[in-house]
Amino acid sequence: MSYLARKKTSKILLLGLAESGKSTIIKVVIEGKLPKKGERYEATIDYERKQKVIAGTELTIFDLGGQTAFLDRFTGELSEFIFSGVKALVFVVDSIKITDISRAKYYLDLSLKKLEQFSPDAKVFIFQHKADLVPKNLKSEVRKTISEYLLQGVKKDIKYDTTSVFSDSIFKAMGDVYAEASGARKTLRPLLETFIRHNAADMAQIFTKEGAPLTKVENISKFDHISLSEVQEFFDAVVKRLAHSDGESATTILLESERRVFFIRFMENGLALFFGFPKDRLREKNEPIPSLYNKVLAFSSQLTSITEG
Known about the structure:
The protein is built from 11 helices and 10 strands. It has 2 domains: 3-182, Rossmann fold (3-Layer(aba) Sandwich); 184-308, 2-Layer Sandwich (Beta-Lactamase), CATH 3.30.450. It is an alpha/beta fold. The protein has helices at 3-6, 22-30, 68-74, 79-83, 101-118, 139-150, 169-182, 184-199, 232-243, 279-285, 289-308; strands at 8-16, 47-54, 57-64, 86-94, 123-129, 158-162, 203-208, 251-256, 260-266, 271-278. It has a 6-stranded mixed beta sheet, sandwiched between helices. α8 (184-199) runs antiparallel to α11 (289-308). β2 and β3 form a beta hairpin.
């Protein structure tokens, strides 16, 4: 059997009204571009497909145009094609265009009906996007108002996130979508937990190269994204370097702070490993850094064989 015949595939829908921010999410989270204030992208005509491989699963992300004519076709004559075989639906709503909320609710309800008809097991996510534009003192009230309105009468379990391309929120939210659609959490989390248990790490995560977290390990730390003050400047430099690289070769980077040793391992398959080890525990275990480095490389090889095999 050929590799293409064996490869797992999964379908994600990215849907919402025009100018809700879908194209920017695609550019930043899927294509890895750095966001710029005020930057605008051309409206998606009809729909576009983007491919991304996560943990051995090829994700096909449908970026659906948000103009009324397109939305009517997607939920009408094309509904079987659009909503069949879906693993995850992401519905994007603008945080500040409150006047459009009733129309967003209309298409959300219609999409959920079509999803129930053609892909009843699909997971649903709502991104209340452009949250950075909401004044701080109104964020809780705006979230409550929009979420209650959108979820009124909805029986399906939906994960609701407030997101922005100018914070970690969009990466965390898309990480949940990736993990759900690819099955990465079930595949990768046990491996990560085993490594942590045997090597005294107190920070650990597996990301897409762009920064979307794929795993959650309880009782290790509250670490969700590489944004800790200890490593932020370092990570920003790495991201800028990656933006200008071809991404075809693996790279391992070591960083030491006063209290910890960090490893970031960028892999050829588009995943990135992040580990933080407390120096006091390494001294207790008499674990030299070169030995730790070799263990990270070994774990990376194991992960590669599983996700590509």
